[in-house]
Amino acid sequence: MAELRVQIDRLDRQLIALLAERAGYIDRAAQLKPAEGLPARIGARVNEVKANVRAEAVAKGLDPDLAEGVWSQLIDWSIAREEKTLGRDEQE
């Protein structure tokens, strides 16, 4: 069990590093969107990301509902982060 926990902790650190990297890209998107006239939330992109996540989860043998739930929270957080820069405006 101890070695298993070490491996889980290692993966958790890697996941945090990847999420931090993703947040950096979210910040960059918030800088670029005004020049393109884009809002923080773009409904079609949200749907695309969720579909991609579900497909990848299925391909990897992970419950797609779990993956989509995690990503839904991540997407909501990301949009809120962008809205601090861009303001609230929605494009479907």
UniProtKB/TrEMBL annotation:
Output the GO biological process annotations, alphabetical, semicolon-separated: chorismate metabolic process; salicylic acid biosynthetic process
Residues reported in the UniProt entry to bind substrate: 5, 22, 33, 82
Q: Which Gene3D superfamilies match?
A: Chorismate mutase
Keyword Isomerase among UniProt keywords = yes
InterPro entries linked: Chorismate_II_sf, Chorismate_mutase-related, CM_dom_sf, CM_II_prokaryot, Isochorismate_pyruvate-lyase
Q: Name one GO molecular function term.
A: carbon-oxygen lyase activity
**Top EC class for this record:** isomerase
Q: Which UniProt keywords apply?
A: Isomerase, Lyase, Pyruvate
Q: Where is the Chorismate mutase domain?
A: 1-86
Q: What EC number is given for this enzyme?
A: 5.4.99.5
Determine if Lyase is one of this entry's keywords: yes
State what protein this is by name: chorismate mutase
Q: Which organism is it from?
A: Roseinatronobacter thiooxidans
